[in-house]
Amino acid sequence: EAQVTQNPRYLITVTGKKLTVTCSQNMNHEYMSWYRQDPGLGLRQIYYSMNVEVTDKGDVPEGYKVSRKEKRNFPLILESPSPNQTSLYFCASSYNIPTGELFFGEGSRLTVL
Amino acid sequence: QKEVEQDPGPLSVPEGAIVSLNCTYSNSAFQYFMWYRQYSRKGPELLMYTYSSGNKEDGRFTAQVDKSSKYISLFIRDSQPSDSATYLCAMRVDYKLSFGAGTTVTVRA
Fold this sequence. Notes:
The structure holds two protein chains of two kinds.
Chain A: E1 4-7, E2 10-13, E3 19-25, E4 31-38, E5 42-51, E6 54-57, E7 65-66, E8 76-78, E9 87-94, E10 103-104, E11 108-112
Parallel strand pairs in A: 2-11
Antiparallel strand pairs in A: 1-3, 3-8, 4-5, 4-9, 5-6, 7-8, 9-10, 9-11
Chain B: E1 4-6, E2 11-14, E3 19-25, E4 32-38, E5 45-50, E6 54-58, E7 61-66, E8 71-76, E9 85-93, E10 96-99, E11 103-108
């Protein structure tokens, strides 16, 4: 089954404790992206990657890091999480950027205390 | 000012009604226009996309784009309880994709 898989789905952590949210897709997509979703603000792009070893900042990259060492994986790293990073995070991938069809994961709900 | 403005609702309609959703945008460079549907506790899924001004129909769904007014709409005819979800407009220029805040729709049986 074609899918984007994120882990963990739910996480409660404390300020400053490094964490990684993994994302993996099995559709051989070149483009992958991370979003956060907050009430009233919608989906905001954090980082995106057009291919292996090619990443770029989205609208809200502060406090996040990403890497794209393999085509299928695109982990999101929070080196020192803060409470304002409490959010619902989505990973997405796409095979054809111009048409804009993104395939989203199920989401990872992160709470930073 | 946000690049994409969308009325968050919520919107509650009886089954069979026409649902009308819309977004405005400020960036005239946007090239592709999309509507995503998001069910509770799920990731968004693409509903419709269009490239040019005008109408596009897909079953009970019609997407409209008016580039001159920087305004896009989604109409859902004969709405069903299964249409209850949050609808997000999205717009793309190159690799940048911008979303509206989403409108939550409830269709009452």
